[in-house]
Amino acid sequence: MGATLVFLFSSFAIKAVGKAAYYVINDVRAQFKEKPGILAGTEKPDYARSVDIVTRGALKEMVVPGLLAVGMPIVVGLVFRYFNMGAETVAAFLMVGTIGGILLATLLNNGGGAWDNAKKYIETGMYGGKKSDAHKAAVVGDTVGDPFKDTAGPSLHVLIKLLSTITLVLAPLFL
Known about the structure:
175 residues; mainly alpha; elongated
């Protein structure tokens, strides 16, 4: 259950980035229609509106992962308390969640960074440079890698801290 939580939490974080990007794309298109001078350089886009959309979208999309992170240790501890194994089970949940979280965070941070650096390396002229097939593939890889290294990887550190804090604070309830 601890490892499953880590992967589920990461998937929500990665999905949130995609949804926020979709919101921004729609806003940019709307601004181009509202202010045709943006493309000509005669009008300035409303940057604050885009930032507000991203912020609202990110907060909205992280409600479920946040509730999951807070609720899972409580549910596990209370359910298994009924079988007189609450403390042991929630301790195992915390340990496995921490181990899985550290491993997955390391993988996501390093993998995302590798994809980002591969694109930069190709842009220096290697493998055909910009506009080559290798560069097109690297851009796709970087699109996946950025949410890995910038969102999912770092948020797992928060998940691990939250799991341990909730578990330790509520440990008396699980005995």
